[in-house]
Amino acid sequence: xxxxxxxxxxxxxxxxxxxxxxxxxxxxxxxxxxxxxxxxxxxxxxxxxxxxxxxxxxxxxxxxxxxxxxxxxxxxxxxxxxxxxxxxxxxxxxxxxxxxxxxxxxxxxxxxxxxxxxxxxxxxxxxxxxxxxxxxxxxxxxxxxxxxxxxxxxxxxxxxxxxxxxxxxxxxxxxxxxxxxxxxxxxxxxxxxxxxxxxxxxxxxxxxxxxxxxxxxxxxxxxxxxxxxxxxxxxxxxxxxxxxxxxxxxxx
Length: 252
Prior knowledge:
Blueprint (H helix, E strand, L loop, with lengths): L1 H9 L7 E3 L5 H9 L5 E2 L2 H7 L9 H14 L4 E4 L8 H11 L3 E5 L1 E2 L5 E2 L2 H18 L4 E6 L1 H4 L9 H14 L3 E4 L5 H11 L4 E2 L5 H6 L4 E3 L3 H18 L8
Helix pairs in contact: 2-4, 4-5, 5-6, 6-8, 8-9
């Protein structure tokens, strides 16, 4: 697992981003690997939907069960979307990740317990530091992707308006031991370039057309989150409607 974790970290190259098509089960993870994906990332929202639940309401048992099945099914590194940590301590979280076979994790800073919005940045940094310390003690350099929810928590989802707070949190999270930061909702190449230039560290963004512009802006990771799942389910519904309406070639 140490080698897999190191490989995952090496794939985070500013200017040559790791492209992640987020999976939710064994079938989707295997398709990502077959398509040439260099790593598999799960999506908590997609995993939850596949279990018939809402995101942040699946529970850690279901999440880690799905994760364990995925890691056993593919031969490339797996990084897990673990929401805000499921209430686990840093040590418990790392133990659960490694037991499930994952070598990376995506941890968000929304306060789902109190519903107060963003968690205090200092408290979140302290939690990330405990996760890093536990991973170091376990001898596996788990790749920590620290999600920053400033944009999605802004009433207008204004990335420019939240840039200073995004930067402040990013610096704190890097100091705590994060390997990459993920201001979810950020996909404007101009703002990506501003952030990567200010930080000089790996940044995870969402896709925009063309992807090459994000690479030129210095992105180190591009992920679609639950987007792949939602696209596939919408297409499934569309074709199901065609078949039910009498089109025998709906799934041909």
